Amino acid sequence: MLEKTRKIWKRRVQARLFDLTGMQELLDERELHALEDHMGFRGQFTEHRRFQIDELKKLGLTPSSSVLEIGCGPLTAGIPVIEFLKPDHYVGVDVRADVLDLAWQQIGRNSLSAKNPRLIRSDDFATAELENRRFDFAWAFSVLYHLSDEILDRCFAAVACRLSSGGKFVANIQTDVDSSTWLQFPFLKRTLEDYEKAAAKHGFATANLGTIAERGFQLEGAERNNLLLQFSRA
Ligand SMILES: C[S@@+](CC[C@H](N)C(=O)[O-])C[C@H]1O[C@@H](n2cnc3c(N)ncnc32)[C@H](O)[C@@H]1O
Q1: Which of 157, 178, 40 is CA-nearest to residue 96?
Q2: Residue 20 scores a pLDDT above 90
Q3: What is the pLDDT of residue 6?
Q4: Residue 92 Cβ contacting ligand 1 at under 6 Å
């Protein structure tokens, strides 16, 4: 009996200390840092999320649209997109299982299970898993410059079979920062013409929508000069 009372008091003191020392804030901050480390931009999560959902809406996203997100990462865009869309209208694909584990946690945290999002870990843009499914939007943010030429070619080939009539593939590219690496991926400097050529091989016409800064991205980092491209098929 005395042991039980001791345990209850210990728990109460621990809970009080948890509140008094701001542990929840520390945990929230750690969670945010984990998300940022998985999406590649420390201190920029909120703006990347805001920009992406706002941009998709500007491009015509409605609750009835269907979205295939390539390189969905920890659902930086995915969470507000899933929230906005009708159930079963979002599929996220990523090559890394660990980032998808984090993504699933985020779906739970945001109470979005009822939206039935689908997340697929795949090395080949979910070609087999998606069968003949088509989408109104394919979205790839901060992704194309992490794909080697060979994988970029496979990406365009895969998306070409995924768009519904009038569907758009929208992605940002970087053209001015020297090539390096990020995690296990390359970080590649290519020209707009390189992307136009790679896309044309799969029947896509490329429209340059301007820099993300011109389109309202509010941070000062180098990625503000990224171009947003819209690829569409006749
Ligand atoms: C810089 S992160 C961006 C993540 C997310 N789009 C965002 O805005 O936060 C790039 C993502 O692309 C994913 N990726 C890289 N190569 C890929 C491939 N071949 N297929 C699918 N995803 C890939 C990475 O795992 C990573 O999650």
Answers
A1: 40
A2: no
A3: 87
A4: no
